[in-house]
Amino acid sequence: AQRVTQPEKLLSVFKGAPVELKCNYSYSGSPELFWYVQYSRQRLQLLLRHISRESIKGFTADLNKGETSFHLKKPFAQEEDSAMYYCALSANSGNTPLVFGKGTRLSVIA
Amino acid sequence: KAGVTQTPRYLIKTRGQQVTLSCSPISGHRSVSWYQQTPGQGLQFLFEYFSETQRNKGNFPGRFSGRQFSNSRSEMNVSTLELGDSALYLCASSSGTGQNTIYFGEGSWLTVV
């Protein structure tokens, strides 16, 4: 069975400080990993996916198959980054449902 | 283009009643998925429809059902509502093939009293 764990419910950082949101997964095959973000009063939206290997809004995430992790990082947090972040896994890109972690609320303090 | 649209946005039902929620996917998308979001359990997958056929199903009781129409619009139904069914129900659409992006609607807030 697939499982996604986000160990932190809440993460508070000061503006300009580095951010790392942790995500660990459990899956025996080759998963596709995603980060979704939900800003206040907005819908859930895709932030980035590991196959794209791109940086969105300054965030990056690297899939570490050895540690089964997909941590989200940003070198300098901004107040507008405050949101709920969800890590998600798909066993087979496009054709299988997403398994979500419980989410981490990021609060960036000015 | 228009995003995923869900109706109604908010509704209150009584235990034992049934409810139907509707979802209009992004134009051209053939896959529609439904998720339940609660504070305790987070986001949990209910089912996915692709070209009017249920392609994937989560671990929910048979009281939860869905369907998809030829225009890709989808409905989900919950019968014999229980207090624990109170949740945000999210619909998501995608092309359903290849490495596609899944887009979410704003959700339907269901309160069972």
Describe this structure in words.
The complex is a heterodimer of chains A (110) and B (113). Chain A is mainly beta. In chain A, 0% of the residues lie in helices and 44% in strands. Chain A has no helices and 11 strands. Chain A has strands at residues 3-5, 10-14, 19-21, 24-26, 32-38, 45-49, 60-61, 72-74, 83-90, 98-100, 104-109. In chain A, strands 2, 5, 6, 9, 10 and 11 form a 6-stranded mixed β-sheet that branches. Chain A has a 3-stranded antiparallel β-sheet with strand order 3-8-7, with no helix packed on it. Chain A has a two-stranded antiparallel ribbon with strand order 1-4. The model of chain A has no long low-confidence stretch (mean pLDDT 92). Chain B is an all-beta fold and 113 residues long. Chain B has no helices and 11 strands. Chain B has strands at 5-7, 10-13, 19-24, 31-38, 42-50, 53-57, 64-68, 74-78, 87-94, 103-104, 108-112. In chain B, strands 2, 4, 5, 6, 9, 10 and 11 form a 7-stranded mixed β-sheet that branches. Chain B has a 4-stranded antiparallel β-sheet with strand order 1-3-8-7, with no helix packed on it. Chain B is globular, with a radius of gyration of 13 Å. The relative contact order of chain B is 0.33. Classes of the chains: A mainly beta (110), B mainly beta (113). The interface between A and B is medium-sized, with 20 and 27 residues.
